[in-house]
């Protein structure tokens, strides 16, 4: 950016969900003022979903809103959080309770960034990938089933296509229902129980995608029991999650505590 003539200031936050907080937003406002950011400045969110949500929230609120660019570097961020304009931070009462809709001016998706992502984080992100197959596109789901092992090896031309497909599904859902009046809620498939697991187990115990994977197993079970999903479809979903090396159970998370966390 400097070579291109931009004046650049940097601010970093520690890795982990704890950084997605009002405290770190305050830290970034301080940094923004220190670096002299004005209404024409641009924030670049370089990192995973935590950085994207936090930096997006700061961009949405600093000086009543400035532009920002998402440069996602995790699977979750590439296929999900960098697209769609949901920004926010957590409160101790729960995740994403404070936030705004603020669309990035640009998303720079380069899957080569995944080459340094730890294996567990990579697999965790694949839960969100499976989600798109379940909620939107049966052919895509079958492609994931057929290429699961290949996809788990890391960045590849196939993975690039998979990321692009996920982004276009998310963009289509958000185009139809940006403010989650109805349809956009399908993107939360598995997230009701998933978010409760993250909270009950303590943030960081289960990675986001791992918790969502357990939540999708539960949602599939309920869909079969109460909403007419076929048993076979339920089995396909759970098998693909397992093939992706994802958990489908959260031992230690008592149902009573999860119910309370769901609210
Ligand atoms: N805004 C949305 O629509 C949306 C959608 C889905 C998830 N989210 C949010 O995203 C967050 C989860 O995102 P995440 O899974 O990316 O977690 P994360 O941002 O915590 O990143 C996971 C870990 O990987 C590290 N990391 C990221 N990229 C790396 C790379 N290329 N190489 C090495 N290490 C790297 C990070 O430092 C961190 O330790 C949650 O807070 C969730 O609520 C938001």
Automatic annotation (TrEMBL):
Q: Which GO terms describe its molecular function?
A: 3-dehydroquinate synthase activity; metal ion binding; nucleotide binding
Reaction catalysed by this enzyme: 7-phospho-2-dehydro-3-deoxy-D-arabino-heptonate = 3-dehydroquinate + phosphate
- List the pathway annotation: Metabolic intermediate biosynthesis; chorismate biosynthesis; chorismate from D-erythrose 4-phosphate and phosphoenolpyruvate: step 2/7
What CDD domains does UniProt report for this protein, alphabetically? DHQS
Q: Which Gene3D superfamilies does this UniProt record tie to the protein?
A: 3.40.50.1970, Dehydroquinate synthase-like - alpha domain (1.20.1090.10)
Q: Name one GO cellular component term.
A: cytoplasm
Annotated 3-dehydroquinate synthase N-terminal domain ranges read 12-123
Q: Which InterPro entries match?
A: Dehydroquinate_synthase (IPR050071), DHQ_synth_AroB (IPR016037), DHQS/DOIS_N (IPR030960), DHQS_C (IPR056179)
Q: What biological-process GO terms show up in the record?
A: amino acid biosynthetic process; aromatic amino acid family biosynthetic process
Q: What class of enzyme is it?
A: lyase
SUPFAM superfamilies in the cross-refs: Dehydroquinate synthase-like
The protein's required cofactors: Zn(2+); NAD(+)
Entry EC no(s): 4.2.3.4
Pfam families found in the cross-reference section:
DHQ_synthase (PF01761), DHQS_C (PF24621)
In this chain the 3-dehydroquinate synthase C-terminal domain maps to 125-257
Q: Which UniProt keywords apply?
A: Amino-acid biosynthesis, Aromatic amino acid biosynthesis, Lyase, Metal-binding, NAD, Nucleotide-binding, Zinc
Recorded protein name is: 3-dehydroquinate synthase
């Amino acid at each position: 950016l400097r070579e291109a003539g931009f004046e650049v200031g940097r601010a970093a936050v520690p890795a982990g969900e704890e950084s997605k907080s009002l405290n770190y937003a305050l830290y970034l406002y301080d940094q923004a003022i220190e670096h002299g950011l004005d209404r024409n400045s641009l924030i670049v969110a370089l990192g995973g979903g935590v950085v994207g949500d936090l930096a997006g929230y700061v961009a949405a609120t600093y000086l009543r809103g400035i532009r920002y660019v998402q440069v996602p570097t995790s699977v979750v961020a590439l296929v999900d959080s960098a697209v769609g304009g949901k920004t926010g931070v957590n409160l101790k009462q729960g995740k994403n309770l404070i936030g705004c809709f603020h669309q990035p001016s640009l998303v720079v998706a380069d899957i080569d960034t995944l080459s340094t992502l730890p294996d567990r984080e990579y697999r965790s992100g694949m839960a969100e990938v499976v989600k798109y197959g379940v909620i939107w596109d049966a052919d895509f789901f079958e492609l994931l089933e057929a290429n699961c092992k290949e996809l788990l090896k890391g960045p590849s031309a196939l993975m690039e296509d998979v990321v692009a497909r996920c982004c276009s599904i998310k963009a289509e859902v958000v185009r139809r229902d940006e403010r989650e009046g109805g349809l956009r809620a399908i993107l939360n498939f598995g997230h009701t129980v998933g978010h409760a697991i993250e909270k009950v187990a303590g943030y960081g115990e289960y990675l986001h995608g791992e918790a969502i994977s357990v939540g999708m197993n539960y949602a599939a079970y309920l869909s079969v029991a109460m909403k007419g999903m076929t048993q076979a479809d339920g089995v396909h979903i759970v098998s693909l999650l397992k093939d992706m090396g994802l958990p489908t159970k959260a031992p230690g998370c008592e149902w009573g505590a999860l119910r309370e966390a769901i609210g």
